[in-house]
Amino acid sequence: MNWFTDWVKPKLKNKALKESDSNLWIKCTGCEKMIFREKYEKFLSVCPECGFHGRLSALGRIKHTLDEGFELIEFKASKKDPISFYDVSSYIEKIKKAQSRTGLEDACLVARGKILGRECIVLAMDFAFIGGSMGTFVGNSIFGACEMAEENNLPFITFSSSGGARMQEGLFALMQMPRSVLAIKSLKNAKLPYISVMCDPTTGGVEASFSMLGSINISEPKATIGFAGIRVIKETINQELPKGFQKSEFQFKHGYLDQIIERSKMKDELSKVLRILN
């Protein structure tokens, strides 16, 4: 089957093309080629042409990682707009739009389930929700997930995909950095495994806090991992940066990561890592 058989023939049979048909194609961020969306999703948002790993939703990540029968757990923020932030449009309106677009309460989901029979707690971030930014909701989720892991003697896994701390929550967002670090430290003191999987992109306050504290740090191929943006660093130090700087392959070569795992193999590899760490 090819794109003509899959897409053009059925549309010709149904006469005129509709406006929604433009959503049947997606442009790869890596090679910039147009891909049939159904084929792209079949490959778990990995480009079949260049292998670039696109972004998965938080729910999609959990479904791909955990066995059937997992339980979603919600930890709410104490206050949705702690500093009454206002710019061109209100922060609350921005949250409502993101909720409508993604179907999420905020930028992450927590689930309890099994990976090939091995029970664990998983937190997955969603870049589609205000850039996966970490505010009080994400901080509460990390803290709550770590407490649940300790209470039930379970390993904890995070899938990061974020631009960093959420500026609309000011210091309340920045507080989640040390708070998440303390939660992970408590987990490690209890001698429980913490696996951090960094997806594209993992940057800013998220990269500088809990995502780099794994008992083992993993990434998907060609993911951007770093604190400040490449342009900011380049202009600050006034030097040319190495080729592939901040990509997961560069980070692995320089000892920043323990493994790079393709998405299609992630579930099997995580199961192996859990067996070894336990």
From TrEMBL:
Main EC class the enzyme belongs to: transferase
Pathway: Lipid metabolism; malonyl-CoA biosynthesis; malonyl-CoA from acetyl-CoA: step 1/1
Zn-finger region bounds: C4-type: 28-50
EC number: 2.1.3.15
Biological process annotations from GO: fatty acid biosynthetic process; malonyl-CoA biosynthetic process
Cofactor(s) required for function per UniProt: Zn(2+)
Sample GO molecular function, one term: ATP binding
Compartments it resides in: Cytoplasm
Main location (coarse class): cytoplasm
Any one cellular-component term (Gene Ontology): acetyl-CoA carboxylase complex
Domain CoA carboxyltransferase N-terminal: 24-278
Cofactor note: Binds 1 zinc ion per subunit.
Entry keyword Cell wall biogenesis/degradation: no
Transmembrane segments: none
UniProt record similarity statement: Belongs to the AccD/PCCB family.
Task of the protein: Component of the acetyl coenzyme A carboxylase (ACC) complex. Biotin carboxylase (BC) catalyzes the carboxylation of biotin on its carrier protein (BCCP) and then the CO(2) group is transferred by the transcarboxylase to acetyl-CoA to form malonyl-CoA.
HAMAP family linked to this entry: AcetylCoA_CT_beta
The name this protein goes by in its record: Acetyl-coenzyme A carboxylase carboxyl transferase subunit beta
Organism: Candidatus Nesciobacter abundans
